[in-house]
Structure formats: structure tokens, C-alpha cells
Amino acid sequence: MTTSNSLPTAAGAPPVISGKDAGKIARAAFVGTALEWYDYYLFGTAAALVFNRLFFTNMDATAALLASFATFGVGFAARPLGAMIFGYIGDRYGRRPALLTTIVMIGTATALIGLLPDFGSIGLAAPIMLAILRLVQGLAVGGEWGGAVTMAVEHAPVEKRGRYAALVQVGSPVATLLASGAFSLVLLFPSEAFDAWGWRIPFLLAFPMLGIALWIRLKVEESPIFKDLLAQGETAKVPAFEVFRHAGGRLLIAVLAALLGVGGFYMITTFAVSYGSNTLKVDRNVMVNATLVAAVAQIGVTFVMGRLAEKIGPGKVTMWGGIVSAVMSFPLFAMIDTKSPWMITLAITVGIMLIAVAYAVNGALLTELFPAKLRYSGVALGYNIAGATSGFMPLLATAMLGISGNQSWGAALILAIISLLTAVGGFFGERLRVQDKKLVTS
């Protein structure tokens, strides 16, 4: 690990971490993150299959789909604000209270979406309320991921941070399995039943899932590194301001490194599902089921890349993941254009596996770009600025279909660009990694 470019770390006695507890903490972070992403991914699938028809019914089909994706993008726009709010709490008062708050917010907002009347019942109030709840989701997710990986990494021995950070990332494919699986089941209902009440079931399941995740998170101890900062009186007063002022270059690298994991994922899932079902007229179940197969493959890739990051560095893994994803962007969308269920499933699976290379090590790389006193805010801001930027990619790709005559080259070009930007982030990120003060493992 390189330290020549490190920001100063706190002086004082080294904090004690328990290698025995590291796995337990990482698993708790994983469970909470899986719920957060389940809630978030549900909205993406519903934006492609439900909201355009039931909440924007006063528009033509293309305008309704664009409006649905715009509402989807609102959640991403709110994420940097959530990162600032919960980054302040996490760096000033503790990682634990911030994470407990985020999980309650997003679970409640998601379940309430399942109770919303549609446009036919209350008119314009329906999409307005939908946008507000999406905003709440975005604020909560803005603080969730950064806190979860920070907790997992700060409880782990330095030499094992890659695997524990990767465990948190497994929450994403597990959430995809849960969200896509739930939608696959309710899509088996007759169309009338699905539109009337079936689509609501996956959202309402957020209530019992929230109870389980909250119970697990309440057992999690505060980060030993944060406790040490608190004891030394070295917490940041306004952490987000200090990130922009003292670590702006690192923040930019974090944004670049995270672009592919967020934007690429939604290009291969949310946009591809919409493109396949609405433009290519492929059966919706084919598109949704392809994401299920891809999610299973992503789990394996994530674990392998987490271990590889411990050997060669997360920045190098990120760089090569970005390069290969860029090379494969056009071939992947060409495979989807065949309309063959097998080729579509293969394309989405390979696409997600490639994106997972960089995504798997996002936690390990981003947490080591910032010193401990700015870590929650720095990681959350970097990841969620990337999210705010790339969350509108499905909207942009959909708009480009009109320019390209419903051809997929515009979407492939977007994916290639963000892949190369992430490769740049990985290249420089590896050279900017910092070390915490010496840790003692019990």
C-alpha cells in the first residue's frame, strides 16, 4: 500500500480491532445493505414495467416512460445530499446511529410506495407522492452504502479488508435476486390483477424485511477507529466541507472509480429491461429473469475480486474491470438486439459480471482514499455523486433511442464511456490509497 500521498492520520494509541468480530460486523452490514438495495432496485424495475403505465397515464407511451425514469433519477439526485447529512452524523457522532436511521427511512418509504393510489384514483397527486417517496429513498441510500462499507472495513484487519468490503457488495446481487424474483412471481398474475394490486406486494414486503434488518443492526458495535477518533477529540466539525477543501482530488477519483458500478449496473438492468420489453417487444419475463441469472453470477465474481484486491490492490482490479467493460459494451448490446432469450440472458449475465469486477472492490478502494475522520463523508459523497451522475443514464439512453431510430448504439456508447472513466479512477486511486494508524488485532 502506498503512503507517500497520504493525508495525515490521527496520532495516539492504536485502536484495537477484533478479527473474530470482523465477519459478524460485515455480515450485519451486508444484511442492511441488501435491504436498502432491494428497496431501491424495486423502484428501478417498477419504473420500467409499472409506473409508466399507472402513474403517468395522461402521456403518450414514450413520454410516460421518460417521466417514469425521471422519477427514478430523482432518487439519485438526492443521494449526494443524503451523503452530506449522514456523512456529518457518521463522522461527527458515529457510524452506527447514521446507519440505523438510513435503514428505517428507506424501508418505510418503500413500503409506503406499495400503498400509493395510482393516477386513475387521485390524478396528479399520485406521481407527486411517488416522487417524494423516491426522494426519501435517495436521501437514505446516500448515507447507507458509505456507512456500511466504512463499518465493515474499520472492524477488519487491514490485510483482510478486501474480502469484508466485498461481502457488503454482495448485498447488491442478493437484492437484485430478491427484487427481480419478487417481480417475476407477481408477473405470473393475470395483467388485470398485476396492475390492480400484484405489483404492490414486493414493496409491502419491505415492512417485515425492515424489522429483521433493524434487529440485526441494533446488535452492531460502533467502529473502533471512530471510537479512537472520538477519544482523541479528532472528529471533523463539518466533514463534507473538509472533504471538498482538503481532499477534492481524492473525491474526484472516488467518483470516477464508482461510476461503472452504479451507472453500468443500471444500464445493464433498468435500461436493458425497458429496452428489451418496450422497444424490442421481448417478453417481460425474459428480461427480468435474465437479471436473476446475472445476479447469481455476480455473487461469485464479487467474492473472487475481493480476494484478488487483497493481493494486487483494489485500484488495479478497478482499472482492468473498466477496460474490459468498455471493450465489451457494443458486443453486449448487439447480443440483446438479437431478441433471442438465450443471447439476452448471456449478454446481461456477462455484462453484470464485468461490471462486478470494479463494483466488488469499490468499498475497499474508496475507504482507503480518505483518512478516518473524513471517511464516512468522503466515501458516501464519492459514491453518491457518481450515483447522481449515472442515475440518469437510463433516461439519457432512452432519449437517445429517439435519435438513433431505436438502435442500441447510443446505450453502448454511454456504457463504454463510463467504463473508461472508471478505469482512470482505478489507475489513480491505487496510487492515492492511505493507511490508518497502526491497528492492534485482538
Automatic annotation (TrEMBL):
<feature type="transmembrane region" description="Helical">
    <location>
        <begin position="317"/>
        <end position="336"/>
    </location>
</feature>
<feature type="transmembrane region" description="Helical">
    <location>
        <begin position="164"/>
        <end position="189"/>
    </location>
</feature>
<feature type="transmembrane region" description="Helical">
    <location>
        <begin position="342"/>
        <end position="361"/>
    </location>
</feature>
<feature type="transmembrane region" description="Helical">
    <location>
        <begin position="286"/>
        <end position="305"/>
    </location>
</feature>
<dbReference type="InterPro" id="IPR011701">
    <property type="entry name" value="MFS"/>
</dbReference>
<keyword id="KW-1003">Cell membrane</keyword>
<feature type="transmembrane region" description="Helical">
    <location>
        <begin position="409"/>
        <end position="429"/>
    </location>
</feature>
<feature type="transmembrane region" description="Helical">
    <location>
        <begin position="251"/>
        <end position="274"/>
    </location>
</feature>
<keyword id="KW-0472">Membrane</keyword>
<dbReference type="InterPro" id="IPR020846">
    <property type="entry name" value="MFS_dom"/>
</dbReference>
<feature type="transmembrane region" description="Helical">
    <location>
        <begin position="98"/>
        <end position="116"/>
    </location>
</feature>
<feature type="transmembrane region" description="Helical">
    <location>
        <begin position="381"/>
        <end position="403"/>
    </location>
</feature>
<feature type="transmembrane region" description="Helical">
    <location>
        <begin position="122"/>
        <end position="143"/>
    </location>
</feature>
<feature type="transmembrane region" description="Helical">
    <location>
        <begin position="201"/>
        <end position="218"/>
    </location>
</feature>
<feature type="domain" description="Major facilitator superfamily (MFS) profile">
    <location>
        <begin position="25"/>
        <end position="437"/>
    </location>
</feature>
<dbReference type="Pfam" id="PF07690">
    <property type="entry name" value="MFS_1"/>
</dbReference>
<keyword id="KW-0812">Transmembrane</keyword>
<protein>
    <submittedName>
        <fullName>MFS transporter</fullName>
    </submittedName>
</protein>
<feature type="transmembrane region" description="Helical">
    <location>
        <begin position="37"/>
        <end position="56"/>
    </location>
</feature>
<dbReference type="InterPro" id="IPR036259">
    <property type="entry name" value="MFS_trans_sf"/>
</dbReference>
<keyword id="KW-1133">Transmembrane helix</keyword>
<keyword id="KW-0813">Transport</keyword>
<feature type="transmembrane region" description="Helical">
    <location>
        <begin position="62"/>
        <end position="86"/>
    </location>
</feature>
